[in-house]
Amino acid sequence: MKHKLITSSILAALAISPVTFANTPVLEADEHIVITANRAATNAEDVLASQVVITRADIEEIQAKSVLDILATVSGIDISANGGRGQNASVYMRGANSGHTLVLINGIRIGSATLGTTNLNEIAPELVDRIEIIKGPRAALWGSDAIGGVIQIFTRKVDGGEYFASATFGSDNYQKYSAGFGLEHGDGSTSFSVNHEESDGFDVKDDAESDDDGFDYDSLAINGQQQVNEALALTWLAQVDQGDTEYDSAGHNESAVNNHMWNIAAAYQTTLASYANSTQLSIGQSRTSNISYGNGTAKNEGNVFDTRRDQVSLLNHTMFSANWQVNVGADFYEEQLRGSSEFVETQRDIAGYFAHTVYNQDKFSYELALRYDDVEDVDSETTYNASLGYQISDDTRVVLSTGTSFKAPTFNDLYYPLSWGYVGNKDLSSETSDSVELNITSKFDSLSLSLNVHKTDIENLIAWNGTNSEGHTMPININDVEIEGAELGLNYAAPYGLHQFNISYVNAEDTGAEAGEDKQLIRRAKEFANYKFSTDVANADVYFEWQYKGKRYDDVWGVGKVKLDSYQLINLGTSYPLSSNLKIEAKVNNAFNEQYQTINGYFSQERTIYLGISYQN
């Protein structure tokens, strides 16, 4: 059944009086204001969810070469990759599957509607302004996929009259060139940022074929806003990522990537019955396109995997008092497939409606969110979040939270065409989860700490180990997972530098594993820790970074589970200002040349050295 939700929603929205279009300054780059946790501009200290905010300054300090570099040291996040930059990678938040983390760019869902995952390796850090990470279930605000958490990336903004340019060179013939500038237009501005990266790469697969697997990426981001009057504001943004990646899979193959996303939003702020009110309407689209070729197959004959998601969101935020905020909203998606494979269905509609409130009373804080999602051809889901916070003292707060989440089956799960004995199953149900967590945070003059203990039960996990009446392999809802974990974080601002340390324990087990079999979910470690020290030496910014990842397991066809050893990495970096605008940089990744694998049979990058220069007015 085709509801044509997107078309209907646009027409309905356009029929609304312009006075309802609104926007709080949710896209302003202020590290004290966060958006992702509540879908409204909120002081970070008032958010009851477990969160991490990574600023542009943080990204520049570590001289990140991929978004995975940025996420690698966040507590509760583990990563596995089929090699380095440009290769497929998975992010596991709090032990949940890679498809259980919702990824957004400025509020727009990105990622493949067939695979149900997002390859963050394809996003250039140079186009990122900041990243907000919310850990734990958040489906009651964002809908499907937010079981482990939400990662929202905000596109880089350059103020009118400002500009920047940089160049970096490094190991494996790595080259990166970036530039950006901002234009003013009345009470608004638009920024343009471009990035080019290429590398010969390294041999990513442990097999008889020895060749380098390189990449070549070009990216463009546009981010603009216009204050029409005191109440009405418009924002627009677009991002395009194109490139080619070489990879190994039964020979030498290549993949052509052509992803894009855009979003236009109208916003209006007003006072209704003496209450501050704001409403925002946004319309956008994301696209992931991939052409696999090579091994004797020409690019124009390769397999095309193209998914598109049209999105309309209408949000309203009302402040009934300084202590009471109520948010309501609706999201509409239309997902489409275009490609070489003949799927049984190539389109579906999804609608979600939510209400959310936050109330502060003396030392207590309360949060409640409720959402209903209707996924075409799949059962509807109702999810919730509830949190209670207590301010023990001016420096210490305790928060107890519980919530539910879900992940809808992908197009591959439901409609995969019969191929090589595999076929989709249109009778699948959504994967669902129940979570509870306790979070304690304390802040002192120079020391801050956080402790989080969490537990999640996931049911109806989809696994491709069923068989239909014709003997074809198909996915079924069969597995249940229990996840228990804890995270400890410490930040100490010493007179001589900043110490940042976190340690995580995540025990994610398949409750349906056979007796005697290790229950730990594959490709993710139980224990991991990170430490970073940054300081100034003779006017140079210097940092030292240590990462530890415990052992993990992988599942090898025909062999079963194999153990992948634990490993430690040392990364070093420095930058030195030649003038107030010009600086030079140097970075060493994997300084001691650790040999390790996060996926069986795939190498990780050895020691790499980078040198760069950047100018910013």
What would your notes on this structure say?
The structure is a single chain. The protein has helices at residues 5-14, 56-62, 67-71, 139-142, 411-415; strands at residues 33-34, 42-43, 50-54, 77-81, 89-93, 101-105, 108-109, 128-135, 149-155, 163-170, 174-184, 188-202, 213-227, 232-248, 252-272, 275-294, 303-321, 324-339, 347-361, 364-375, 381-391, 396-407, 431-443, 447-467, 473-494, 497-510, 527-537, 540-549, 552-556, 560-564, 567-577, 582-589, 608-616. The protein has 617 residues and is mainly beta. It has a 22-stranded antiparallel barrel. A hairpin with a 3-residue loop joins strand 10 and strand 11. Mean pLDDT is 90; it is low at 1-31.
The biggest sheet amounts to: 22 strands, antiparallel, barrel
Shape: globular
> Structural class, please?
mainly beta
Task: Write down the CATH topology.
Answer: Maltoporin, Chain A
| Number of DSSP helical runs | 5
Number of domains: 1
User: Approximately how much beta-strand content do the residues carry?
Assistant: over 45%
For the record, what is the CATH homologous superfamily label? TonB-dependent receptor, beta-barrel domain
Q: What is the C-level CATH assignment?
A: Mainly Beta
Tell me the span between the first and last alpha carbons: 55 Å
Low-confidence stretches: 1-31
Count of DSSP E strands?
Answer: 33
CATH-level-2 architecture: Beta Barrel
Range of helix content: under 10%
Overall average pLDDT = 90
